[in-house]
Amino acid sequence: MKRLLLVAACLLTCTSAVPALEAGSADARTPAPSLVFEGTSNPDGCGGCTPPDTTGDVGPNDYVQVVNSTKVAIYAKDGTLKMPIFNLSTVFTSGDCSTSDTGDPQVLYDELADRWLLAQFTDSDQLCFAISQTPDPAGAYFTYAFAMPSFPDYFKVGVWPTGYYVSTNEATYAAYAFDRTKMLAGDQSASVIGFPGETNFMLPADVDGSLACLLYTSDAADDLLCVDLGGRRIIKKQN
C-alpha cells in the first residue's frame, strides 16, 4: 500500500526545475521591499494594547490587515486605504460575534476560491468566521459563529482544498476542521469536527500557488503525483 510522505504546495509545475543558489551570493539574499507604507496602528485597534497581534494577507488587488481588537483595514496594493477602517463585529448581524471584538484576529486570502476569510474569537468561547461572497474584501460576507468546547486561545487558520483547518491552545492543544465548501456557499449548516488532547501546539498548513505535489512511496518505486489544488484532475504522474 502506498504511503503518503510529503505534501508541498508548488508555484511551479511538477516538471519545472528550481535553480540552486550558491550560498552567499547576492541572488540568495532577501530582496529589498518593493513597497513600504504605514499599516493600521495600534491605537486604531485596542487603544495601544500590547500585543497588537498584527496579521495580514495579500490577494490579486488588495492587502487586508487586522489588529486587536478587532479592526480591519483594506488597502490597494499601492498602499492606499480603500475604505475607512472598521470593526470586524460590524460584518455580523446577530449574536456575540456582532457585539464582540475580543481579538486574536486572523485574515487569509483563499486563493483556490478567490475569496477572503476573516476570523476572531469571543469571550463566550466562539469562533467567528466571515467569508467574502466575492473576490472583493470590501463587499458582502457570509458569516458563521461556531461554539467551541473551551476558549480557543491563540487560534490559527489554514486554507486547504478539503477544509479550513484551525489549531488552538485550550486546556490541551486542539485541531479543528471546518466545512469550507459549505462556508463558501453561505450554507449555515456548515459544521466543524475537533481533535483535542494533542501534546504540542500545531500550526495548520496554508495553500498558496496553483499546484500541489504529493510524493508517495511503494515497494517497487517512488512515484511523484501532482494534482491541482482543487483535486479535480491529475497533472502528471511519474512511475
What features would you describe in this structure?
- This protein is mainly β.
- The chain has a domain at 49-208.
- The protein is 5% helix and 43% strand.
- It contains two helices and 16 strands.
- The chain has helices at residues 42-46, 180-185, and strands at 3-10, 55-58, 62-67, 71-76, 86-87, 103-110, 115-121, 126-132, 141-147, 153-160, 163-169, 173-178, 192-198, 211-217, 222-228, 234-238.
- A four-stranded antiparallel β-sheet has the order 1-14-15-16, with no helix packed on it. It has a four-stranded antiparallel β-sheet with strand order 2-3-4-5. Strands 6-7-8-9 form a four-stranded antiparallel β-sheet.
- The relative contact order is 0.15.
- The model is unreliable at 1-22, 215-222 and 229-239 (pLDDT under 50).
Beta-strand residue fraction: 35-45%
Write the element-wise H/E pattern from the N-terminal end onward: EHEEEEEEEEEEEHEEEE
- Number of β-strand runs: 16
Q: What Rg is obtained from the alpha carbons, in whole angstroms? A: 20 Å
Largest sheet: 4 strands, antiparallel
Q: Taking all residues together, what is the mean pLDDT?
A: 81
Number of helices: 2
* Unreliable stretches: 1-22, 215-222, 229-239
Cross-sheet strand order for the largest sheet: 1-14-15-16
Helix/strand-derived category reads: mainly beta
Beginning-to-end CA distance, first to last residue: 15 Å
Q: What overall form do the CA principal axes indicate?
A: globular
Q: Which oligomeric form is depicted? A: single chain
Q: What fraction, in percent, of the residue positions are helical?
A: under 10%
